[in-house]
Amino acid sequence: MNEEKIVISLGGSLIVPEEIDVEFLKNFKALIVSQIDKGRKFVIITGGGKTCRRYQNAAKEISNSSALDLDWIGIASLKLNAELLRVIFGEYAHEEVIADLSKSFIFEKPVVIGSACRPGWSSDVDAVWAAKTVNAKKIINLSNIDYAYDKDPNKFSDAKKIEQISWPQYRAIIPKEWHPGLNTPFDPIASDRAEKNGMTVMIINGKPIDNFQKALNGEKFSGTIISDNGDNN
Questions:
Q1: Scanning 39, 73, 91, 94, which has the fewest C-beta atoms within 10 Å of its C-beta?
Q2: Domain ranges for the chain
Q3: 39 vs 193: CA distance, rounded Å
Q4: What is the pLDDT of residues 38-76, one digit of tens each?
Q5: Global model pTM greater than 0.70
Q6: What's domain 5-227's architecture?
Q7: CB atoms within 10 A of CB 214
């Protein structure tokens, strides 16, 4: 394999579900290192998860916080998680977290950790920027959900899981606009940009780790594939 580059959007729900999930992070690192040995390189963008929402909720409860203010809190939480990942990967990782993934960067090490640099969108958008920068056509979105659904499964018992879907179909079932704290498998702004750039996004539950491994190995996995034609081609 000739230095295949893979972009991973690692949800904060996996890094910090309540407390920092040390066991998951150990397994995640081991799997990524095993893929590095096959000649792959990775850009990993971290989400904020519960850390982000706790701080945002506190700010909203105490003051009349603007969307911009809440976004800056979110960016700070992403940076904290990103620094944790950079330290965890140690010698495998670029020495600094890259905030602006829209600018060219050099893969001196096999792992680049990204965070965020400006308000107005989620880490999903940063993943799309990274994919465009390194010319990757696939983004793996790891979170704590098994699939995308045709409606919110927490509110509707008849929600149906989606295994494959086209971008127009997917964008029709998610909110049209993004706001800080929006909880959707892949956000509206990122979806629009991914579609325009002909990218494929895989939505996968990072636990158990072997499901993620199947996706990396090109095997059949449990999750949702969003693409131009609604398939994995």
A1: 91
A2: 5-227
A3: 28
A4: 989 999 999 888 888 889 999 999 999 998 898 899 889
A5: yes
A6: 3-Layer(aba) Sandwich (3.40)
A7: 15
